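Ligand: TNX. Inputs:
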Amino acid sequence: TTVLCLVLLCIWQAAKAQPNLGPPLPIIPQPVRARAGGAPFVLTSRTAVHTGPGLTPSAAARFRQYVCTVGHLTLSLQPRAATGAAGGIYLQLDSQAVTHPEGYRLVVAPGRITVTGHDEAGVFYGLQSLSQLLPAGTGSALRVPGCVVEDYPRFGYRGMHLDVSRHMFPVPVLKKWLDVLAFYKINTLHWHLTDDQGWRLEIKKYPRLQIVAAYRAETLIGHKKELPHRFDGQRYGGYYTQAEARELVRYAAERHITVIPEIEMPGHALAALSAYPALGCTGGPYQAATFWGVFDDVYCAGNEDTFTFLADVLDEVVAIFPGRYVHIGGDECPKTRWKVCPKCQARIKAEHLKDEHELQSYFIQRMGRYLATKNKQLLGWDEILEGGLSPGATVMSWTGEQGGIEAARLGHSVVMTPEKEVYLDYYQSLNPRDSLAAGGYTPLRKLYRYEPVPAVLTAAQARYVRGVQANVWTEYMPTPRKLEYMVFPRLLALAEIAWSPRGPRNYSGFLARVRTHDPLLGALGVVPARNYDEVTD
Ligand code: TNX
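Predicted complex:
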């Protein structure tokens, strides 16, 4: 008996360690545990969605909309129906049965589908998984395979960044994006609103940001390596009104997505300086940049007006974005002007700083203190480590992993976003006729294989890695179509590394699931790239 018990114990342990038993379900990101089996549930126009106590009707309404688009069926919605009653789809909250925040349990049986969430987000994610099990297409009855799925995220921060300064996209396009992010359980949109080439958020106190900084004269086409450059001769620009930004935040929240605004400082500020030249070290005149890169003219760190301006801007920003983070950039700030600017040099002296790097740290720390008075936390690119990290700052490690490693060792939260691994402006294929991209090569497999927690961190340090994010810089993405081409299907790999448990990743299995998602993406209105490299080693 003892031997038998030991054997059974071993089998049970092995089953626990081996998260996915049974035939795979085509869910992306891969759930923690998923077992397919049993008879299917047949969804018809008579199927009702029952929303249990404590839940808002929002998740059921989203699901109904999806089923209508994909399956051409209209489900009925039942608020608070008794669980024992008729068949149908039951949504319920149970933080005891499902212990992980954002976690859910999905059971598909012949007469009934149950989605149990730890919280409202959990129920929402359970419905996303269920949505992915629906066959896309028409028909009066949709068969959902019988299964049991138990699932929760590995990371609390699952991010996608979008640069709207280099090229901007209409609000309906951004909403479609949010739908797709939610479908893949990504919960953060990092919205890069300002840069050298354009300021994209309405700030009521500074109208010249809308009139001047939102536009650039004409745009360089072509890659830096591909001289001679060519200009398109077009004035380009625009901005999002505060009402539009608020609407986007609301739309995102309904899908359990937080929008983090980024207001760049002290570098990448040419557009702002073109509107308010007194905030630069030389006093201008300046022009919003018409080509890509890094520019010497940055906010003057010796001028008090710079801090007043930025504090005023942040006042309006925090009133729009309710999330706990505000991103203040901090990347790629040349010190060329500061080195010869009398005001900056006077500041260095007055504050007993060693050099311009410490001046950058002074700048960021001052803004960090300001954000703290507004109950917000500072998020910045890894250059905010330069000259000393601001207390409580979270670091987004983009130049590689080193910044993130350093920050985690100092006990600061980290979001991993190393450019060589997760930048979606890099090429996804080696096809010489592929359309122009920023350079680099990040095929689907490379992104899929990326492990966000560096092996050099101790277990305690590793806990500071809050998550992972893919960045979408849009220098070479002038249209929504090109944006989609660059982002899909690579976004699906990001979703999986951000959500699914650590462990050996089966790339060919992932690829097979990606292919089954083609029609689902189509139903969401997204056309993914098809000529990406499926490199296998
Ligand atoms: C670096 S990543 C930048 C961006 C560019 C990108 C192009 C980062 C914090 N800064 O300004 O768009 O490279 O790949």
